[in-house]
Amino acid sequence: MSAYSELANHFERASALSNAIGILQWDSDTMMPKGAVGTRAESLAYLRVAHHGLVTDPRIGDWLEAAGSDTALGAWEQANVREIRRIWTVDTALPADLVEASSKAISACEMTWRQARADADFATLLPYLHEVLRLQREIGTAKGEKLGLSPYDALLNDYEPGGRSARIDALFAELADFLPGFTDEVIAIQAGRGPVVAPDGPFPVEAQRALGLSMMAVLGFDFDRGRLDVSAHPFCGGADNDVRITTRYDQEDFARALMGVMHETGHALYEQGRPQTFLHQPVGQARSMSVHESQSLLMEMQACRSREFLTFAAPQMREAFGRSGPAWEADALLRHYTKVERGFIRVEADEVTYPAHIILRYRLEKALIGDEMPLSEMPSAWNAMMRELLGITPPNDRLGCLQDIHWPSGGWGYFPTYTLGAMTAAQVFDAAKRADADVLPGIARGDFGPLVRWLRANIHGQGSLYETDELLTRATGRPLDASVFISHLRRRYAEG
């Protein structure tokens, strides 16, 4: 076989292991009994070490050298070689014992976090999280030495290939200059319109689930290749052609679960729309986490909090819960779904205040990876920064530094991709509307076909053929530009 064929076959086997890990991880987060924690941790650690062994196989270097000079390769195959080289360069920086130690530490920390979060008990989590952080610093240092990056940028690179904290600092500074004053302005505007009349609960979980499944179908989710479940923290995971999404329910507020479902469905549509021909190859994977997050926020924030969508959805909501009245009309629901207020929980934050939650986490994780503050000070540092950015202080750590699973699960460097994704979502949705005049009318009649078809052609189906900036420039006409997001916020919240 040619060197390229050797590479492709080798990484198809690695993909099979990744799929197995994905399903086991999904089960750990949704259905696994507590008594299986130790066994599952051992199984996941073994599979991750086996996967690491595959993607760091010494033969890959020789295959890459030969494939790199193969003039017969097409654009997709050349991009696949590029992506394999990126993976191999990063992963060969890590010894197998470090991968194994990190996997075990993460499994123990995740399970401890679930109880610590429920109990608002950071002290119980601290030793487990300290071990995860210690190992993440080692991983960042090892990768950084191989890539010529700081430890934090090396960790960021795992989620945002080519992303650098210096650029994020600049983008976030532009938002930080704009958002505090704008938040005050919007809250004042909304207060002047009188109180928002919210639909009254309780809302039975089964009715919420049925509504969520119905709206997933409207957006285009393929139930032959995915499912919806419940977890402590909503996520999208699973495997190729087996996309598992989760939400969590609140019987007093159905909007939280429904918009969580819309968010995760955006992720799932990206996964289900990746190019089937290269599905098990690196070039067939999603481009980056900021692009992935743009697809979830495009559906949740850009499309499903629009007047067009709520005009369509209001009758469906009334029917789902057997309710009627002023609070269930489209205009009232629009005010409810776009209400801006300062709150403690990131996943429940509105579109205007959400970036502050991310800037807080971004600054803290950079400081912790850089060993600029002890982990024991994280709760107090979190509370101080929340006062600075949002003007509120969490009453306990469950509503503060314990609310996210990302750090216990080893996701250091992940958080900035959320707000990068929000900016990307605004830019992509704007481009889709300009490209097809039927996007908004389609949403108003419950037809997401025009939007999804454009996304399939310009984002989903492109996989990792292009680097992030080139993908976005091809799709929207420019690289990431915070001004598009800021303009969107002004139109929706100050001018609408």
UniProtKB/TrEMBL annotation:
Q: Which cofactor does it need?
A: Zn(2+)
In terms of CDD domains, this protein maps to: M32_Taq (cd06460)
Query: One short Pfam family name for this protein?
Result: Peptidase_M32
The record describes how the cofactor is bound as:
Binds 1 zinc ion per subunit.
Q: GO biological process: any one? A: proteolysis
UniProt entry keywords in alphabetical sequence: Carboxypeptidase, Hydrolase, Metal-binding, Metalloprotease, Protease, Zinc
**What is a GO molecular function of this protein?**
zinc ion binding
Query: What residues does Zn(2+) bind to?
Result: H263, H267, E293
E.C. no: 3.4.17.19
Q: Where is the active site?
A: E264
The reaction(s) catalysed by this protein are: Release of a C-terminal amino acid with broad specificity, except for -Pro
Which domain of life, per UniProt? Bacteria
**Could you say which enzyme class this protein belongs to?**
hydrolase
Spell out the family assignment given in the record's similarity comment: Belongs to the peptidase M32 family.
Among PANTHER family, the record links this protein to: CARBOXYPEPTIDASE 1, METAL-DEPENDENT CARBOXYPEPTIDASE
Question: What's this protein's function?
Answer: Broad specificity carboxypetidase that releases amino acids sequentially from the C-terminus, including neutral, aromatic, polar and basic residues.
* Protein name, per record: Metal-dependent carboxypeptidase
**Species this chain originates from:** Aquabacter spiritensis
